[in-house]
Amino acid sequence: MTAGLAPRDSGREHAGTPSAGYLGRTGEHVAITTDERPGPTREQPPDRTAEYTATSGDQPTGPIGAHTGTASAARTDALSDHTGTPSVAPTGTATEQDSGANGRRTAAAGTPHASTTVAQRTATTGARHSATTGAQRADTASQWGTAGRPERVVRRACELIGRTPLFELTRTGTGTRLLLKLEQFNPTGSAKIRMAREMVLHAERTGLLRPGGHIVEPTSGNTGTGLALVALERGYTFTAVVDGHAARDKLRAMRALGARLVHVEGGDGGPSTVARRRKAAEIAAATGAYWPDQHNNPGNGAGYRGLAEELRADLDADIDWLIGAVGTGGSLCGTVDELRRHGSRVRTIGVEPAGSIIFGGTGRPYWQTGAGSPAGFRIGRNVDYRHIDEGCKVADADAFATARIVARRTGLLVGGTAGAAIHIALRRLLYLRPGGTVVVLVCDAGEKYLDSVYDDDWLLERGLLDHLAHQRTRRLLTAYDDSVRLAGGSPPTGHHTAGLERTGT
């Protein structure tokens, strides 16, 4: 069941602290000011915001790539920011070490050329080969007319972060369009890699993380996978504190990247957020590991400045509504903070699972992973209510049905929390001005949920396979397509919903 869908005036008043609409009880839309906070209490860890600002003065004010979590920033940070990174072997590369050993064995055998090591011969040969291949490439570039054009080749996965595409899911006959920011095209298949890298770089700049150090973080999977990749590239060890609520493929991905997993359980079948944080604190205290604390780390929101810059670069007009799932709050609040810093009058809708307590209400178990906060959890500082104009709750069945319909319509697999955000966006299109733009942050890929969100048996076991929810979403998309045709246009190509009824979805 969806709540918080009452139409609001789309006016652009953003002076001072904006008012916000939050859900109190199911089906009830309550308007509150930012001084009237929802029920959950907040923990008060040491405020590192001022420290963060003082250590990152080169914040972006121009095009993408200026320390914003984009590929060019990654190259700068990855290759030159951390000069003491232990990811480079302290005594040279494996080839050089082996070559040195071979040279010593040659010398011991008394060969006539003992002074010439294999490493030296390799270097000489490599130099000749490089000169030859360089000339060959120059000749080829001249033949193909590409002389002088820089090659687009990267050497680290983190250099691929950012510049994710915008995809038009649907539009109305009045020209209003719904765009998806497809963050699953980042390394690790998630937006969280942006903030994972920024939190680690900030820790390096401030001396909280030393070469060869240990990182520990409680995670539902996406942040953990991002930290595992950054740790791998920069020479750290990483421990992820997880629970059984996480998608199994996320756990497998973290292991594949070398992370150590520590399991905890909360006992109520829902996410064990409180227990995970308690365990992470114990590990950090016992081992001296660095705990980024994604719920309160200012590097979380700062990691999405690049995403905001990409939206500004890719669109020729302001965004009317930015909609995203809210967990730590970093992706939505960090993005809108940067957009508004550049003068955008965008309005925002935060989306959480029904049963989460971020926007008030009584907590209960839910199956969406990576968003929301369970009962008893103290909401972190990165959920900045000043940057959330409305809060909505979406039931698991509606979120999953929407994700499945999007897959059948477009061929794109999105996560369950993205399905929840799209569910709200599809209904908000009805109230938008002609020619308006709605952007949904699709924060992770659906391939991680093939054995849950996209598995009929898994859904049936939990009472979440709702055929009526599938039909409502499909018919709403069909109605938008029909409105475009009636207006004399044509809907986005490749959008077919026929056949969904035949399969029962």
Summary, kept brief:
This protein has 505 residues and is of the alpha/beta class. Helices cover 38% and strands 11% of the residues. Helix 12 (396-410) packs across helix 13 (416-428) and helix 12 crosses helix 15.
State the strand order across the main sheet. 3-4-11-8-9-10
Reported for the largest beta sheet, the result is: 6 strands, mixed
Q: What is the averaged pLDDT score?
A: 80
Order of helices and strands: EEHHHHEEHEHEHEHHHEHEEHHEHH
How many helices? The count is 15
Shape verdict: globular
Describe this structure in words.
With 505 residues, the chain is α/β, with parallel strands linked by helices. 38% of the residues lie in helices and 11% in strands. It is built from 15 helices and eleven strands. The chain has a six-stranded mixed β-sheet with strand order 3-4-11-8-9-10, sandwiched between helices. A three-stranded parallel β-sheet has the order 5-6-7, with helices on both faces. Helix 7 links the parallel strand 6 and strand 7. Helix 6 runs parallel beside helix 7. The radius of gyration is 25 Å and the shape is globular. The N terminus and C terminus are likely disordered.
Keywords:
11% strand, 505 residues, alpha/beta, disordered N terminus, disordered C terminus
Topology record:
Layout: E1 20-23, E2 29-32, H1 49-55, H2 71-81, H3 94-108, H4 118-144, E3 166-171, E4 177-182, H5 192-206, E5 214-218, H6 222-234, E6 237-242, H7 248-256, E7 260-263, H8 273-287, H9 298-302, H10 305-314, E8 321-325, H11 330-341, E9 347-353, E10 390-394, H12 396-410, H13 416-428, E11 437-442, H14 456-461, H15 467-486
Parallel strand pairs: 4-11, 5-6, 6-7, 8-9, 8-11, 9-10
Antiparallel strand pairs: 1-2, 3-4
Helix pairs in contact: 3-4, 5-6, 6-7, 10-11, 12-13, 12-15
